[in-house]
Write a structure and sequence with these properties.
Blueprint (H helix, E strand, L loop, with lengths): L1 E4 L3 H12 L4 E5 L3 H11 L2 E3 L2 H6 L3 E4 L6 H9 L10 E4 L10 H4 L4 E7 L9 H4 L5 E3 L5 H7 L3 E3 L5 H28 L4 H21 L2 H4 L3 H4 L2 H14 L4 H15 L10
Parallel strand pairs: 1-2, 1-4, 2-3, 4-5, 5-6, 7-8
Antiparallel strand pairs: 6-7
Length: about 270
């Protein structure tokens, strides 16, 4: 039996997903009981108004609060009168924090861990389906058996590297959205309608993802930098300097990083 402390999008999606895998879910606890009730209704489980009652009901407790709240929750749990049990485990889903943040709980005699799903949780109905193909990053082998039950692949990481690991996750997922938004704003500047841009960009983005899936970085890359088209890059820079000067340095920075990836510095002068 598992349960969740925290009742946001991640906890709700995981609860629904684990239930599809035949895993019993007791329910949810949240400082805001309304959030726990909503998550419980969506997952057909139970909302808990009392944290200790939720913990007593389950063998595996997932802490799915915000990153900044995990330490406080760990201290709160450690202060409860819960008999130590080898069969009870507490874990969090943070990408940036190691299992070490749960030290107050571990010192009380409980097993601790972390399992970070490599997925963007947008709250869409398709999230549960996507979890079937999601990798989880873990720190200890103890969780390997659990994910064998759900048929999810795992990546094992040294907890000391979690901050750097999460930096990579954020650049890949979060800043990709930022880069897309910048690109869309450039498209809009040309007079193309926003709705058309988004629809037209989907096949392009899908082809890029597919290329990176089967090829290493520089082999997946296409475009003027790879070809060494100096005049094309100059025209890009001139158009930005004229119409969107605030984006010139971003373009140049990305260009310089691309040259490093290619190990080809033919166009370094115009991108300096």
């Amino acid at each position: 039996m598992i349960a969740f402390v925290g009742a946001g999008k991640v906890a709700t999606a995981l609860g629904n997903y684990f239930r599809t895998k035949g895993i019993d879910v007791a329910g949810y606890y949240s400082r805001n009981f309304g959030h726990a009730r909503q998550a419980a209704e969506i997952t057909n489980t139970r909302p808990f108004a009392n944290l200790q009652e939720l913990i007593n009901s389950s063998r595996m407790i997932w802490i799915t609060t915000s990153d900044d709240a995990i330490e406080e929750v760990a201290i709160q749990i450690a202060a409860l009168n819960i008999p130590p049990s080898e069969n009870k485990m507490f874990l969090h889903t943070s990408g940036v924090h190691s299992t070490g943040i749960l030290l107050p709980i571990k010192e009380k005699g409980f097993s601790t861990g972390s399992a970070h799903p490599l997925l963007s949780f947008s709250g869409e109905p398709t999230t549960v389906e996507k979890l079937n193909h999601t990798w989880f990053t873990i720190e200890n082998d103890e969780l390997t058996e659990f994910f064998k039950k759900t048929n999810n692949p795992v990546i094992k990481i040294d907890g000391k590297q979690k901050a750097l690991y999460h930096t990579a996750c954020s650049m890949l997922a979060n800043y990709m959205v930022t880069l897309m938004d910048i690109s869309f704003s450039i498209f809009e500047k040309t007079g193309i309608e926003k709705d058309k841009i988004r629809n037209a960009a989907i096949p392009l983005l899908e082809s890029v993802i597919q290329n990176t899936q089967y090829k290493a970085g520089k082999d997946a890359l296409t475009g003027p930098l790879k070809r060494g088209d100096e005049n094309t890059i100059r025209m890009h820079l001139q158009s930005l300097e004229k119409d969107m000067p605030g984006l010139v340095e971003i373009y140049k920075t990305l260009g310089r990083e691309t040259m490093k990836m290619l190990d080809d510095y033919r166009l370094s002068e115009i991108l300096k």
